[in-house]
Design goal:
- The complex is a heterodimer of chains A (470) and B (298).
- Chain A is α/β, with parallel strands linked by helices and 470 residues long.
- Chain A is 36% helix and 17% strand.
- Chain A has 17 helices and 16 strands.
- Chain A has a 7-stranded mixed β-sheet, sandwiched between helices. Chain A has a 7-stranded mixed β-sheet with strand order 8-9-10-11-12-14-16, sandwiched between helices. Chain A has a two-stranded parallel ribbon with strand order 13-15.
- In chain A, helix 11 runs parallel beside helix 12 and helix 14 packs across helix 15.
- Chain A is globular.
- The mean pLDDT of chain A is 92.
- Helices cover 7% and strands 32% of the residues of chain B.
- In chain B, a hairpin with a 7-residue loop joins strand 16 and strand 17.
- In chain B, the strands form 4 sheets. In chain B, strands 12-19-16-17-14-13-20 form a 7-stranded mixed β-barrel. In chain B, strands 7-6-9-4-1-11 form a 6-stranded antiparallel β-sheet, with no helix packed on it. In chain B, strands 2-3-10-5-8 form a 5-stranded antiparallel β-sheet, with helices on one face.
- In chain B, 50% of the residues are buried.
- Chain B is built from 3 helices and 20 strands.
- Chain B is mostly beta strands and 298 residues long.
- The N terminus of chain B is likely disordered.
- Classes of the chains: A alpha/beta (470), B mainly beta (298).
């Protein structure tokens, strides 16, 4: 048995994804095409998108793999996003799989590629997921490269394929799934919204929605009230983003349950699609560990590949202090983040909303690393170290030189003075920040800069490609 | 001024204790032979972090706050830190940092809201809570009734002399305790042979019931999951039990022992949660799920 037509969830994905009646099959088992895969094109909000939906079953015939390759080739020639619905359940890999991998790599950065997993993407098929730009899984989906039997022998732990790589695990621990949807229809609707933020290909621009001009808006007084005075106090960064965006919906988040110290997602400002990287002060002080740095780096490169401007909101306790031998190679991940910003040629706007110290100040949309405009709110605090760490360092020197140790009251005063010195005004004078703006007027500033940077163009140096610190 | 501080002139006044706030340090290890349990702080890691944030040595006594609700007022300038359960922190009504060194000026009040994740928050004060020790510890042992009484409104707590070390960092970037299923590693035994299938412990999940305090947490089996059956109901002679022991009464619903566990128990202990995971167990709330994994693989 080599599979029949796509299963119910896969069909539901396509039905929710495409404009009604727009899908035209290219290869359809029901119309005599090879069994195991349905391919075709349709429109999503009026723009062309190619889709490939696998049928549950055993190893697809080589003819089915050919059909997938043809659909990808059509997407490449016509500059359309590719959505692949993974629903294989059988073991083994079809002949021609290598060509599928090669095709996915060839399309990387050319057209947006989205993988939706409604069934299984196991063994070699698991490799196709990280090669997509965005992976959406349904609750029952799974993906694992390792053979469960082999893994059980080696680890002594009996886990089936779902235990090795279930949707929940990919949403949280691995971060491979950008979103887990309840079912096929919800997954299709998510992809539809996602594609609305992206251009059809790297040669197109993201769609811009008609909106009332931002310049005519009153300052947003409510935003200021959301922000605590104490720079160490947490607040809801999603609500802040909703105030900065065109509509009050929170951003379309990707990887919400993975590496929560940083939020990544898409929003709209002045009708324009905008990628957002925002540290979340309510999760471990908005700190960056290796996973959070890698998550942000991959998102910045995704936006850059498809011409979506990046807005970075910075309020962070910094990089999580880690040993160089800690899991995840934290310094390499931090370097990936710096690389991603330095390499990006899309408009880069940064708002320092709170704390930004040390390497985090450099790694998150710094002006020196390549941001076009860096704004700061009056509550922002910038500097090499936080005020407590600064004072501890000063006192250690004074004590070493024979000075007295301050009591609690004096210490607190020195910390407060230090904190005042780390104001955004000082950062403007130091050249780290372009301007201090009121939170309530930030939307207008950002809209103006997005307009000004619309035609930003960077000519990359002649080279085969850079060497991203993977 | 610093001379007065060095003599430990700081004081902290309890305005409201919340559901249960006790003074805790690292307990009374080594007194088992006299029938005195080690007791001590439930989540040692969070106590250590709170102490480090304010510059204290690791063993200084702090406040262990069940679910939040504590309000304290400084009578002198104090430096505090709140760690453990994720609780909204405010100073005189203004939001303040969690897992951060914070200044509480004389006359100001620190308030902990209700924890959103985790069970026990820790409030360390620079200098430590300097109530008189009992048998070498300031910990309240709730089962034995040893140590300082749980806090009551109006209590005034002395704060010890300032340590040498100043706070070195404003905020420690640590994650809040997990809100979902918590994984704990268990070494089977010493009485696993008293069960039909001790491995049933590792199947599925267990739910923490409302019977959950510093002595222990009773666990219930969600419907449809294999029970933990004792193969014999013959009684054991009472034997010593330890922190993290999973003692199983005839009902088959284990009790996971906390820091104030009894010194001996008469029901068989099917397994013991690894000491390194005891801090995780201390933050599990009633209603939350536990999953046990074998700590030693066959």
């Amino acid at each position: 048995m080599n599979g029949g037509p796509p299963g119910g969830e896969a069909v539901a994905v396509l039905a929710a994804l495409f404009d009604p009646g727009s899908f035209a099959p290219l290869s359809d088992p029901a119309a005599g095409g090879p069994p195991g895969v349905l391919t075709g094109c349709g429109t999503v909000a009026g723009r062309g998108v190619c889709a490939i939906a696998q049928a549950p079953g055993a190893v697809p015939e080589p003819a089915a793999v050919d059909a997938e390759l043809r659909a990808r080739a059509l997407a490449a020639r016509t500059g359309r996003p590719v959505v692949t619905v993974h629903d294989a359940t059988g073991a083994g890999t079809a002949r021609g799989f290598g060509e599928l991998v090669r095709g996915a790599v060839a399309l990387s950065g050319v057209v947006p590629q989205v993988a939706v997993v409604t069934g299984a993407a196991d063994a070699e098929r698991a490799l196709l997921l990280p090669l997509a730009d965005v992976v959406v899984a349904t609750a029952g989906a799974r993906s694992a490269l390792a053979d469960p039997a082999a893994a059980a022998v080696v680890t002594g732990r009996e886990r089936d394929a779902a235990g090795l790589g279930g949707a929940q695990l990919h949403a949280s621990a691995t971060g491979r799934a950008a979103h887990v949807a309840a079912g096929g229809a919800e997954a299709g609707a998510f992809v539809r919204e996602l594609l609305g933020h992206l251009p059809s290909s790297n040669l197109a621009t993201p769609p811009r929605l008609p909106v009332e001009p931002v310049a005519g808006e009153e300052p947003d007084d409510e935003l200021e009230a959301l922000l605590p005075v104490d720079p160490a106090a947490p607040y809801d960064v999603r609500e802040v983003l909703a105030h900065l965006a065109d509509d009050e919906d929170a951003p379309l988040e990707l990887h919400a349950r993975h590496a929560g110290g940083v939020l990544t997602g898409f929003t709209r400002l002045d009708g324009r699609s905008l990628g957002v990287v925002a540290t979340d002060p309510a999760v471990a002080g908005g700190s960056l560990d290796a996973a959070a740095a890698a998550k942000a780096a991959r998102f910045v490169r995704f936006c850059d590949a498809f011409g979506v401007p990046v807005l970075t909101l910075v309020d962070t306790a910094g990089f999580v202090p880690a040993g160089e031998d800690d899991p995840g190679s934290p310094t390499a991940a931090a370097a990936q983040l710096v690389y991603a910003y330095a390499e990006a040629s899309v408009p880069l706007l940064t708002v320092v909303t709170g704390r930004a110290h040390g390497a985090a100040l450099l790694a998150l949309g710094s002006r020196h690393v390549g941001a076009d405009v860096v704004l700061a709110w009056p509550r922002a605090r910038l500097g090499a170290r936080d005020a407590v760490a600064e004072v501890a360092g000063e006192v250690a020197q004074e004590v070493a030189g024979g000075g007295a140790r301050p009591g609690t009251g004096e210490w607190a005063q020195r910390v407060a003075r230090r904190e005042a010195l780390a104001s955004p005004g000082a950062a403007v004078r130091a050249g780290d920040v372009d301007a201090v703006v009121e939170p309530g007027r930030t939307r207008a500033h950002l809209a103006r800069w997005l307009e000004a940077l619309e035609r930003k163009a960077v000519t990359p140096p002649a080279r085969r490609h850079g060497n991203l610190p993977l | 001024m610093s001379g007065a501080a060095a003599q430990g002139a700081g004081t902290l006044e309890v305005v409201a204790p919340g559901p249960l706030t006790t003074v805790q340090d690292l307990g009374r290890p080594g007194a088992f032979r006299w029938g005195v349990g080690a007791a001590g702080v439930a989540d040692r890691r969070s106590l250590g972090l709170a102490n480090r944030l304010v510059g204290n040595p690791a063993g200084h006594a702090a406040l262990e706050v069940l679910l939040g609700g504590l309000v304290v007022r400084a009578r002198t300038d104090l430096v505090l830190a709140v760690t453990g359960a994720a609780t909204p922190v405010s100073v005189d009504g203004a939001p303040a940092g969690w897992s951060s060194a914070l200044v509480l000026p004389a006359g100001s009040a620190l308030r902990l809201g209700t924890a959103t994740a985790g069970l026990r928050a820790y409030v360390a004060v620079r200098g430590g809570v300097a109530v008189p020790p009992v048998l070498g510890s300031r910990s309240r042992d709730t089962l034995a009734g040893l140590g300082p009484d749980p806090l009551a409104a109006g209590d005034v707590l002395p704060v010890g002399p300032e340590p040498e070390q100043l706070p070195r960092l404003r905020t420690a970037p640590v994650a809040a305790p997990a809100a979902g299923t918590v994984d704990l590693r268990v070494r089977l035994g010493p009485r696993a042979d008293r069960f039909t299938d001790p491995g049933a412990l590792f199947a599925g999940t267990w739910t923490v019931t409302a019977q959950c305090d510093r002595v222990g947490a009773r666990l219930a089996r969600p419907a449809g999951q294999p029970p933990l059956e004792r193969s014999t109901t013959a009684e054991l002679a009472p034997e010593g039990v330890v922190l993290g022991a999973l003692q199983v009464p005839p009902s088959g619903e284990p009790v996971l022992f906390g820091p104030d566990h009894p010194v001996t128990g008469g029901y068989p202990v099917v397994g013991v949660v690894r000491d390194a995971d005891a801090d995780l167990a201390a933050q599990v709330r009633p209603g939350q799920s536990l999953r046990f994994h074998p700590a030693v693989r066959a």
